[in-house]
Structures are given as C-alpha cells and as structure tokens.
Design a protein that fits this description.
Helix content: 25-40%
Strand order of the largest sheet: 4-3-2-6-5-1-11-12
Strand content: 15-25%
Structural class: alpha+beta
Order of helices and strands: HEHHEEHEHHHEEEEHHHHEEEEE
CATH architecture of one domain: 4-Layer Sandwich
CATH topology of one domain: Glutamine Phosphoribosylpyrophosphate, subunit 1, domain 1
CATH superfamily of one domain: (Glycosyl)asparaginase
Radius of gyration: 19 Å
Oligomer: single chain
Bound molecules: aspartic acid
Distance between the termini: 21 Å
Length: 341
C-alpha cells in the first residue's frame, strides 16, 4: 500500500530506541510527513461511509464529527449488519451496539439498544452528556428518548425477516455458548466468507483530520442470530475500537468474543506504539487469536484495521475475504486485507 512504511526500518528503529531505553516514545515526530486528512473503514460498504466522513474532513472539520457522520450514513441504509434493518437475535429482536472515541480519549457507547435508529449518535451523547462510558439495553433506550431520539417500530426489514425465517428452519433454537462460524451455517457466515456475497459486516471507521487528530466509531447490529443480551466487541472500548491520539487508532470486525479475549484494538494500538506498522500490528493481534485456539480459528473470521499518527494504514484478518476502504486526498479505493490462514 502506498503509505505503508518499511517494516524492517521500523523494527530497526525500535531496537535502537530500546537500547537507548526510549522504546516507549511514540515514533511519530512533528517532522514526519503526514497523510491527512484520511478516513479508513471496514468492508466495501466503507466507500460510502468514507464519502460521508470526507464531506467533513475535506472542509477542515473534526475527525470525531467525520466518524459520526460516516456511521450515521450506514445506519440509514438497509444493511444486514448495521442499524435497525440488520439481522435480529435468536428471539427475532434487532439490538444495536455502537461506540465512539475522540482524540482526547473521551468515549461513549451503547449496547443491546432496541428501536433507536442512530446508536452512534446516542453513543456520542453518552460521551458528551454523562459521566459514563457505556449504557445498555433499556437504560440506553431511555437515555436516548430523554435526549430527543424517537422510538421506532420493532418491524424487521424485509431482508432481515427472510434471513430470520431461513435461519429458524435450519437452526436449532437453543443458546450457543461457544459461537463458532461454519461456512453457510453460522451467524453472519456469508459476511465473513465474501465469495461474491453482497453481505457486509460491522462498520468500524477511523479518521485523522487536518489537525492530525484521530477519532473512531463503530456501529453494528452485532452477530446475526446471537443470544438475546449478547454483546460483542463492537461497543467495547479497547476491543472493537481504540484511539490514542499520540500513536494511532484501530477497529475490528468479526467474531467479537475472540476480539474481547485479547483486548484486540488496544493491543493493536500498543503494538503500533512499540514501532510496528499498522499492518504488522494487526497481524500480531491476529496471530494472538490464532495461537490461543488454532482449531477454532480455522472456522472463524476476525479482521483488524488500523491507522497510525502519520496516516499510514493497514489491516490483517484470519481468513481471506476481509476488505477495507480508504479515502484521502490521493486515493479512494477498496483494499483486500492480508490473511493468516
Ligand atoms: N464484531 C461483531 C460482533 O461480534 C460482529 C461483526 O463484526 O459482524 O458483534
């Protein structure tokens, strides 16, 4: 990729810094060339998300406003995995998760929230108007309504209704404790094995604005046909999203339980702090998941997407099929992430 730095250079620099006892210093310096503004998003649907965010970034707007605009845009579309049109849980209820984090480490999130169209906007209100980080379920909905959000109907989108009916025919109705994806059979499987399937997945995006400030946002209806009450990585700060304005930011998509187990995006950002490029940091985090349970990893997908303070980006996934979208002054395209298996 165009802005990727040379990995060996970074490791060499890192070792030199280590020997000087300076390894924990951020590698970015005021003198490094920076690719800004820039926004990166998970999946190919990230192209339209990036376009919405770019309207703000290209007008010298703040990255936190840009990522909220991007997430809001996808929540307005009919999409299997985001917003009220998304696939429901096992009980037929759509529950939404979202989070947002800005350049000062402020963050807000909602999880398991029903009947509110824009969870990302509620997450931002949690960030700005409460002393808390995460509101869940009825409490999140109550907070949303108190703040002027409208309670929408519970009706599933036509696509979600079809998918749910099919799932009920072929799937046993019982809670799964260990959620594993089997191609064509498991929750969200088509999204993870993108063999031409139109399905998309959790939307995570990270942006850097003209000032060089980083923010990120994630929005999702979570894993399709999950147990009612199940929350994945997406609204968990440090799992589905993490931003450190001195170092970089990362987001994730895929089986949330595996991302939570390794505090995935926090790990990716900390690896970038140690000198790894975004792509190598994502790869290391993927290796950690695979190493923990190689047999399980064969049947699941996780992808990480990251950007550092210079606007360099990279991604890595367990399986083939994870793609991401990039928009900057010099590019506007979809990239395929490298994969471990
Ligand atoms: N990460 C999301 C979750 O576990 C699922 C996804 O990316 O589709 O809820």
């Amino acid at each position: 990729m165009r802005f990727k730095t040379d990995y060996k250079m970074d490791r060499k620099q890192f070792l030199q810094l280590s020997s000087m006892g300076l390894a924990s210093l951020p590698l970015s310096s005021p003198f490094s060339a920076t690719n800004k503004p820039i926004v990166i998003s998970t999946w190919d649907s990230g192209m339209e998300v990036n376009a919405a965010a770019w309207k703000i970034l290209s007008n010298k707007g703040k990255s936190v406003d840009a990522v909220e605009a991007g997430a809001t845009h996808i929540e307005d579309t009919i999409n299997c995995c985001v917003g009220l049109g998304g696939y429901p849980d096992r009980d037929g209820t759509v529950t939404l998760d979202a989070c947002i984090m800005d350049e000062r480490g402020n963050c807000g999130a909602v999880a398991g929230m029903e009947q509110i169209k824009h969870p990302i906007a509620v997450a931002r209100k949690v960030m700005e108007k409460t002393p808390h980080v995460l509101l869940v379920g009825d409490g999140a909905q109550q907070f949303a309504i108190e703040n002027g959000f409208v309670k929408e109907s519970k009706t599933l989108s036509a696509e979600a209704q079809d998918a749910y009916q099919k799932w009920l025919e072929t799937s046993e109705y019982k809670p799964q404790i260990n959620i594993e994806l089997k191609q064509g059979n498991g929750p969200s499987a088509p999204s993870f094995f993108t063999d031409g399937s139109p399905n998309h997945d959790t939307m995570g995006l990270v942006a850097m604005d003209c000032n060089g400030d980083l923010s990120g946002a994630v929005t999702t209806s979570g894993m399709a046909f999950k147990m009612h009450g199940r929350v994945g990585d997406s609204p968990i700060i440090g799992a589905g999203l993490f931003v450190d304005n001195e170092v970089g930011a990362a987001t994730s998509s895929g089986v949330g339980e595996e991302v939570i187990r390794i505090c995935g995006t926090h790990l990716v950002v900390e690896l970038m702090r140690q000198g790894y490029t975004p792509e190598m940091a994502c790869k290391k985090a993927i290796e950690r998941i695979v190493h923990r349970d190689p047999a399980k990893a064969k049947n699941i997908q996780v992808g990480f997407l990251a950007m550092n303070k210079k606007g360099e980006y990279g991604a890595y996934a367990i399986q083939k099929g994870f793609v991401f979208s990039v928009k900057s002054n010099t590019e506007n395209q979809i990239h395929a992430a490298k994969h471990l298996i």
